[in-house]
Design brief:
The protein has about 450 residues and is of the alpha+beta class. About 35% of the residues lie in helices and about 20% in strands. The strands form six sheets. The chain has a seven-stranded mixed beta sheet. It has a three-stranded antiparallel beta sheet with strand order 4-8-5. Strand 6 and strand 7 form a beta hairpin. The longest helix has 16 residues. It is globular. It starts with 5 loop residues before the first helix and ends with a helix.
Length: about 450
């Protein structure tokens, strides 16, 4: 396994449970990749994903088999409530027919346009369509501006005008393909989903001590000799039906000492931008990976601030707020993190995690830390009534955050399929099959099955 993120750890555990011996090589001094938790002065902040949402039975079976599920906790019930900013105020997303009819989030004409969705002809010409064009075509401009646009910012930190709906939101695209309408297809699709036996009740999960518990638990189940952190491959070559790999550890007493071993299979679970650095001996492999164009990954910076509860006017009675591009603000959104799980702030305090940058405003993600802090404080003051100096600040900068499933990405996916057919290797990660923690883990479980 190349890469000790959640994909590599998941695949290594899945293979070990099937009786295989594995070696995981990670370049950094720790496993977990983007999943990282910071705890200080009674506050807890995530450096990456705040939660993971599980519903696939295959993933639940894995979480049970590795004893991860009993250690997890569910989000508070209030986390089901979401807010979207409109007119400079966070407005609750409708959760019922009655609230949908009365919500100020959408105008009367926007609601009527939504109700007309079943009468919009389906498009089945096989051509690529952006998420923005798909949503505007099916449910109108206003629903795009104040529902889809902020949702894409919250999930991908991406541009709806560029994302390919087939790959970014395949379940939504399939509703149109199968039923001709999103509204008409919702109920029968839910029934088919329940009848398939492939899913369980959806759960939004984390851990009492944060998301980093997940990679720590998965690493603890592996043979310590099979996990090499602060290490790097120095050469890998095809040999017979497998691979001969050489690697060395920077943490070893003799850093020049190299180990080598034969492996039946190779799993690549590192970001695509690093593939060209893999030291393949074979010219054909080097040439193949040199031709693969990795998906863009915009920069995102997250600031978690802690405030005394009485200094924040908003009730914080939900998951968080997303900010539409049309509102012309300087943040993508804010999660009400202390409202999601316990132990995120000391008694009498709250935490708020705010995201900056993405494809919308990449320049803000690259600003100095003090400038970003001032932006976040100003926005939280305007939108949530957060006053005064924060009692806690944790800033995490990710210059290459989330792979974008933009139009044209099918060429990238086809190249991965071609590589898996041509060479004895597999791929797993958030660059294939979905960007969430759960989708990344499923990608790894599927790769392990194929191996």
């Amino acid at each position: 396994m190349l890469g000790g993120g959640i994909a590599g750890l998941t695949a290594a555990n899945a293979l070990r449970m099937r009786g295989a011996e594995t070696l995981l090589v990670e370049k950094s001094p720790r496993v977990g990749g983007a999943i990282r938790t910071f705890a200080r002065d009674g506050f807890l902040a995530e450096g990456g994903p705040q939660t993971f949402v599980a519903e696939d039975k295959k993933l639940f079976d894995f979480l049970r088999a590795t004893d991860v599920l009993p250690a997890a906790i569910d989000a508070f019930p209030a986390a089901k409530k979401r807010f979207i900013v409109r007119g400079g105020k966070p407005r609750a997303v409708p959760a019922s027919v009655v609230s949908a009819a009365t919500t100020p989030l959408f105008s009367f004409f926007g609601k009527m346009r939504l109700l007309a969705e079943p009468f919009v002809p389906a498009r089945r010409d096989g051509n690529a369509e952006s998420v923005a064009d798909f949503v505007r075509r099916r449910i109108g401009r206003e629903m795009y501006d104040y529902a889809l646009n902020p949702l894409v910012a919250g999930i991908f930190a991406g541009d709806p005008e560029k994302l390919d709906v087939r790959f970014a939101f395949p379940k939504v695209w399939n509703l149109e393909q199968r039923y001709g309408s999103l509204i008409r297809g919702t109920l029968p699709n839910a029934k088919a989903k329940r009848a398939s036996g492939l899913y369980e009740k959806k759960r939004t999960l984390s851990f009492p001590h944060g998301m980093e518990t997940l990679p720590k638990m998965l690493r603890a189940r592996l043979d310590p000799r099979g996990v090499r952190v602060d290490s790097e491959l120095t050469e890998i070559a095809r040999e017979g039906g497998g691979w001969r790999a050489r690697w060395r550890s920077r943490a070893a007493v003799c850093t020049f000492f190299e180990e080598d071993e034969f492996f039946d299979a190779l799993l690549i679970a590192i970001p695509p931008r690093a593939w060209k650095e893999i030291p393949f001996r074979d010219e054909a492999l080097r040439a193949f990976f040199a031709r693969i164009e990795p998906p863009p990954m915009p920069p995102v910076t997250m600031l978690t601030l802690g405030f005394p509860r009485e200094r924040v006017a908003h009730a914080l009675d939900g998951f968080g707020m997303l900010v539409p591009e049309k509102e012309r603000r300087k943040i993508l959104g804010t999660l009400f993190t202390s409202s999601l799980f316990p132990n995120r702030a000391p008694r009498g305090f709250v935490t708020l995690s705010t995201y900056l940058g993405g494809t919308r405003q990449p320049e803000i993600a690259r600003l100095p830390a003090d400038a970003q802090l001032e932006i976040v404080r100003e926005e939280l003051r305007a939108l949530l009534g957060a006053e005064g100096e924060p009692a806690f600040v944790e800033r995490v900068e990710n210059p290459c955050a989330i792979p974008q499933y933009d139009i044209g990405c099918e060429k990238f996916f086809a190249a991965l399929d071609e590589a898996e057919k041509a060479f004895p290797l597999r791929f797993a990660g958030n660059f294939r099959g979905g960007i969430s923690v759960a989708q990344t883990m499923l990608s790894a479980l599927n790769a392990a099955e194929k191996i």
